[in-house]
Amino acid sequence: MRVTARKTRGTRDRPGARFTREEGAIVKDWGGRLPVALIYPNSYYLGMSNLGIHVIYSLLNSYPRVVGERVFFEKDSRNPPTAVESGRPLADFAVLAFSISYELDYFNVVAMLKAGGIPLYAADRDERHPIVMAGGPCITANPAPLSPFFDVMCIGEAESIVPALLPVLEEGIGEARDGLVKALAALPGIYVPSYPPGKSVVRQFALDLDASDATSVVLTRDTELGDLFLVEVERGCQRGCRFCLVNTAFSPMRFRSVDRLVEQAREGLRYRRRIGLVGPAVADHPKIGELLAGLNDIGAEISISSLRIGSLSQDILRELARGKAQTIAIAPEAGSDRLRRVINKGISEDDILKTADSIGRHRFRQLKLYFIIGLPAETDDDAGEIVRLALAIKERLDRHGNTRLTLNAAPFVPKAGTPFQWLPMAPQEVLNDRLAVLRSSLPLKGIKLNEESPAWSQVQGVLARGDARLAAALADIEDVSLAGWRRAVEKHQLDIDYYVNRRWDTGDKLPWGMIDSGMRYERLCGELEKALA
């Protein structure tokens, strides 16, 4: 057997010119190896900016007897999906492993299986077909809507699941499918819909982040973050926002050591000048100042994901400015202290304005604000409060220079495993009214507004709190559009109001009840009660 790990720049046997511009792709001979297709059900442009894809790709290929290749969804392609590395179709692989980060990508999952000639429903597949698996935050939170399509669903983080999973797959591929699937069902963190578990499937997570790297593996300019070398700083969050999925999917909070992070960044500087620091709460790293100083000392330019307002000290901002960070992103989430208390954000307007003043003083090129509309207990006045706060922030920025201000507004979508999992979304007409207030005020004042569609957010809400009955509608959609969705829903007589607009009782059986995320029921109920008190 021959294994080659090589730069792929300039090769001719790759499907598409952009793939020849990659550096770091891992190419192996298939002989005697378990071929696994790592599938991201969205575009190459987005998927190659997802650090999780890099981590799993590297993990799979660290096993000598496994060959892992990437597959992406290409919306405008008339050809069936094929692997980046070999150009092989899905049917050639023994295992199809989907990594699913967003509910609206469920439509692409269905489209890819259909286009690849793979029977959509797990019950229709036999020994001739690949084992079809899924993982990722959406699956960890609520595997139910897609469960009829998958043989195996992974609940938790790949580093803690893959090492036990691969030997069972290697041994069982080619044998009786039922026996293999049953053996997989016995593994920690594995949910097999055809073998309902006798007890909850416990979410798995890596205990020591330093035990394995989480950095960019394949470098390409043809992606959203193409000028960055990505490095994961931490995983999880300890803040407890009541709407947020991070605690459900990624707790407990864990940090990588500064020495290891600087070493990874030093390696990354061989390929990119800018180091992208990734994590839901990067500034909560207990040695964030030491980390930023270390990166500056080795000559790195720094890019950082959304920062916690209460964690942004003058020293941190000074080091970010020294590292030529161009954009700072913060998330007030709501326009009033009252509503921030409802969601347990833990920051005040005074905190926000002081942070904005400091950001302006350091003359960063852009400040991004993230807000949620349609939150529980929101009133008509709260949209105006967002406008008022945004204008106050802009006034602080303008005192010091020309830092651009961008405001991103997204509808609240209740997520499984959070204290707000029992609550409905705001009606679509209410969301449209809230956005209209923002549209009529912010652009005129020089604030760029980015908004997410209320209509599509409601589809996302259906899928986030959905059950297995939704699979029939997903299977029948021919064109991914709002009209196509409505037709499929009507055909299968699904009560969308139940999933989106109805408050559920805390005693109701939940579609994701088979999952033990680590969040205690009593705690979730208690947090909900506090929010609505």
List the helices and strands and how they pair.
Elements: E1 3-5, E2 26-28, E3 34-40, H1 44-47, H2 51-61, E4 66-72, E5 95-99, H3 106-115, E6 131-135, H4 137-141, E7 152-154, H5 158-172, H6 177-185, E8 190-191, E9 201-202, E10 228-232, E11 234-235, H7 246-250, E12 254-255, H8 258-268, E13 274-278, H9 288-297, E14 301-304, H10 314-322, E15 327-333, H11 337-342, H12 349-361, E16 366-373, H13 381-398, E17 404-411, H14 428-441, E18 448-451, H15 454-464, H16 470-476, H17 482-491, H18 496-500, E19 515-516, H19 521-532
Parallel strand pairs: 3-4, 3-5, 5-6, 6-7, 9-19, 10-13, 13-14, 15-16, 16-17, 17-18
Antiparallel strand pairs: 1-2, 7-8, 11-12
Could you characterize what this model shows?
By secondary structure, the protein is α/β, with parallel strands linked by helices. It folds into two domains: about 5-200; about 210-460 and about 520-530, TIM Barrel (Alpha-Beta Barrel), CATH 3.20.20.70. The protein has 19 helices and 19 strands. The protein has helices at about 45, 50-60, 105-115, 135-140, 160-170, 175-185, 245-250, 260-270, 290-295, 315-320, 335-340, 350-360, 380-400, 430-440, 455-465, 470-475, 480-490, 495-500, 520-530, and strands at about 5, 25-30, 35-40, 65-70, 95-100, 130-135, 150-155, 190, 200, 230, 235, 255, 275-280, 300-305, 325-335, 365-375, 405-410, 450, 515. The strands form six sheets. A six-stranded mixed beta sheet has the order 4-3-5-6-7-8. Strand 17, helix 14 and strand 18 form a beta-alpha-beta unit. It is globular and about 70 Å long.
